[in-house]
Amino acid sequence: MPTALTIAGSDSSGGAGIQADLKTMTVHGVYGMSVITAITAQNTTGVFGIEDIDAKMVEMQMDAVFSDIFPGAVKIGMVSNAQIIESIVKKLREWNAQNIVVDTVMVSTSGHDLIDQSAMEALKSKLLPIADIITPNILEAQKLANMEIKCKDDMIKAANMIRQYTDASILIKGGHLEETADDLLCCKSENIWFNKERLNNTNTHGTGCTLSSSICSNLAKGMDIIDAVRCAKEYVYGAIKDGMDIGKGNGPLNHMYQYV
What we know:
20% strand; globular; 8 helices
């Protein structure tokens, strides 16, 4: 069975973070494992508290996973301080991890900052350089590129700016565009657009976590990056289009729409 590891924060409401990642890996037929970096108190209406896990415990969790069931791919989500980022990079290098997907989680769907400035610098200087693919949304790409993104041409410019930090493929998600939900994949010297119409559904909590975990699962199954992104995009589109409505705020997509 293909194996994958998520290194991320816990979402008590189950729509994002570790919980969304493991659901996604399971429905992709991948054995999912987890390293928890933070515990959050949150639901569909917002984030009410964040408590980081000690960096040494993060390292111990990673050693426990890699020494027993080596993951075929690794997804990294919420990492809210520099020390945890440094520990993750250290262990990924020690274990020679492959197929590293970095979801640059910086802002929650409800608008809460999830990363401080020192962590931002560590993310750019230490984590992004070892990634195989990074998956910022437009708000995150604006922070990484230090520019405003209003259109698809701006997405291309931002991807070129982000290249100063990484040689990884860069997937800028277009969910915050006004007219479409087109994603841009900058893969080596090639720009590939994945075009989708915008769905009229505000229940999109955990979309970024789910997309990156789907990409991670597809890489673990042996797909190349382009096919992994294409299939992940279709999966997330279907999970949003399903129209599940849970919670009083921005509810989650339906990770299990193909099975219920």
